[in-house]
Amino acid sequence: MTSSKASLIWRGSIWVGVILTLLVPIGLAANSPLLAWRDSIYILGGFAGIIALALLLVQPLLISGFLPGISLGSARRLHRVVGAALLVSVVLHVGGLWVTSPPDVIDALLLSSPTVFSVWGVVAMWAGFASGGLALMRRRIGLRNWRKGHTALALIIVTGSVMHAMLIDGTMETFSKAALSSAVIVVTLFVTQRLQGGIFRPRQE
User: Fold this and answer.
1) In this structure, how many other beta carbons lie within 10 angstroms of the beta carbon of residue 101?
2) Residue 82, SS3 per DSSP
3) 9-61, pLDDT tens digit by residue?
4) Which carries the bigger pLDDT value, residue 195 or residue 141?
5) What distance in Å separates the CA atoms of residue 204 and residue 119, rounded to the nearest whole number?
6) CA 51, 56, 58, 62 torsion: positive or negative?
7) Multiple choice CATH, 12-198, 1.10.20, 1.20.120, 1.10.1740, 1.25.40
8) Distance between terminal CA atoms of the chain?
């Protein structure tokens, strides 16, 4: 086997693995029997949350330049686009729950909800909004300070989101949800460690 063929197989394997990790949990959730008792707004809000969790896996893969076939410049631009899509997904998630059950959302936002997963979700949500705001202030606060703040917030977002998802007994199938959550944690920690060491080229400016 030539090196070019082996490289092609390796690149293809990476994409297949990433796509399956993202789509399998979504597909299984779409076939959940629990959806039969939910209205369309609630389902939209729920799937927005699932998509947000999936996007958390994409973000570190993009900024690290790990996804083959995407140039470093394109990966950075996509990282910003996906970040915006992530915030939109969170807004749709909370908005859908607000329409169907405002008291539950109010309790969650006030951190007075009896369900622990709500607290984790709210923490992740505010960290996400803070990360978006920090991105807009990148030039003002300096690249070094921005990197530290962005990394810290990313770890909070990932921790809160994974805990939020794993504690919910909902439409997501347990094994695929755990696999996706584990992938998000492992990839985020791995990429964060390498970025802090300046190993990945996207951070070398």
Assistant:
1) 14
2) helix
3) 888 899 999 999 999 999 999 999 988 888 899 999 999 999 999 999 999 99
4) 141
5) 36
6) positive
7) 1.20.120
8) 37
